[in-house]
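Exercise 4. Each item below gives a protein and its sequence. For each, produce the structure-token representation.

Item: Programmed cell death protein 2 C-terminal domain-containing protein (Candida verbasci).
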Amino acid sequence: MSSQDYSSDEEDLFDESKKSQVLLGFIDTPIDNEEIPTIEDTFVGSQPIWLHENSKPKEKLITCNNCNSKMALYLQAFAPIDGKLYDRVIYVLGCKNSNTCSKKKGSIKAIRGIIEDQETVDKIKNEEKARLDEKLKLEEKKKLNDELVKNLFKEDEAAKNPFGGDPFGNNPFGGSPFDEKEEPKQEQKESKSYADIASKNIPKSKPAKKLHDELPEYTGNFLYVDNEKFKTQANDAELEKYKHLIDNQSDKEDDDEKGNSSSSVLNPQTSKISNMLDDKYFEAFSNTVKHNPGQVLRYDLGGKPLLYNGNDEIAKKFQSHPFNIPKPAFNPSSERQFELQLMPKLIINLENLNDKNVEIKDILNGMSWGTIIVCTDKEDYVPDEEFDENNVAYIEEWCGVQWEESV
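Answer:
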């Protein structure tokens, strides 16, 4: 995570008692000719890194359904699943023709990529074996230390006891009734989770795959991933700003009515803000995001998304239990689960809206989504026929977009 989001000196601002299983992605270092990502990195913008240099997705997967133009990469997330012996990546791409394709279905897509080659399988097995060996070494070391302490304790007691042993004789319970019994250890599962991988946050000096300048692109940055934290006191500046605008408009309306003015209806902009404030989902979205305003990614496999509003068709799919997400056509006996979503701050980073030279027209003609939600097959299945000669497969997953003007 970038130091501009928060530093270690500000850790006391966060309430450690409020824990979240959600992982957040923050903008870190830029992607350039010296710092090129690999498939084991999570990043936004730039060019995608395909799972094999000779294995790319089918044209229809990286092409807008509306204008047939190739789409640009929003996010590439390395997201392996525990117990699976393959590398797994989620790609999110979007059409850059905002004027013609914005708010249209098929202008933003999510792709799940898998590589099952023997080299990858062997690599994951070796990593798991190394972790298991390290765990066994630590357990053996602890066991040896416990035995040493126990022996020293027995020698000390024997020296103090003139009878040279237990004055109560043999204990039918296998030891002194006053001995402290060691609780049975519950074996903890060592897993190679998304957090384990993403939290490395160190760009590789030597890329494993070559970048292909084949797609239009946005500014690229590596992401720093960390657990979601909540500030002890987060201000309501964002909502207060909107409330202030509405209060001003209300005062203006009162003045207009007194002056018999015909302007008795909120203007469109203020009406939109008023609807946002009345939407409990948008309020929850705003209240959650203000704790970590720099977030561009939320990852919570099997969890639930943070809805941008509660009024559109996407929101209705997540307001039912279970979620009303279409089942994967390639695996109809399964169902999809929430995996990740992109947050609106990403628009600022992708389109360089922090640049001093940015113009108003660039902002108005740019992206206008509130959040992009990706749901993937619960079984992580890919039909055999989708794999190519390099044991690579790409398949489209469900992608729901809550547009800014849906509020």
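Check: The chain has a mean pLDDT of 78.
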